[in-house]
Give the backbone structure.
Amino acid sequence: MRKAILLPLCGILLAACSTVALTGRKQLNLVSESEILSASLTEYQSYMKTAKLSTDAAATQRVKTIAQRIAAAAEAYLKATGQEADLQNYSWEFNLVNDNQLNAFCMPGGKIVVYTGMVALAGAGSEGDSELAAVIGHEVGHAIAKHGQERASQQMLTSLGSQILGAATAGKSQQVQQAVAVAYGMGTQYGALLPFSRKHELEADYIGIVLATVAGYDANAAINLWQKMQAASTTSTPEFASTHPSSDKRISELQKNIPAVKATYGKK
Ligand SMILES: [Zn+2]
């Protein structure tokens, strides 16, 4: 039974592979982009119904300004890498949500949410601005590299493994909805949280420092930010750390990549 199921599945998998433009890495896409976009929008809208927006106008404006500059950098980046067709999927929104947890996310389609806990961790001044740019750049990096689509596909594959017949016929949109929720760290309602893989984390870090640099921020702030994040996650396990696992390699990769990124993308 199992073999008979796996054979056609392999065919589906081959057909469902696409490539990350930046790295040339092959990725699995079992869920179409339009399915992801519509499921993400539903997920985002239901999240925003319960989220409490910050009432601190200055802090909100600060986050919006930084996120807007990162978004503009992302658009320039997509154009420069021949992915301008993806731009039609983006309708950016920027929010500062009142929550002490260290968290931030960017849904496919450009819905960015930063928690006040993250703003507190980043601190004030231009150094803090650059740290927030690093976080937002990292999140937008996950979005433009379509990591969510890949993760939702992996999640779908897990459900396909256990419920292949059901998934192949009825209720696919329900499955996509759940897969998207799990892929974006909103899966606690389904009893699941799916951490980004090390590969995804390093890829998002790299795109993040490129976007921060293009947007005019100091990419070195990413190192400080991730060090603070690591220190914070030893005393508690914030949601961000559980979905964006850190590795020793992260800091060394940033240190290695930042000079070249600054030389290539920085203001000349
Ligand atoms: Zn991440």
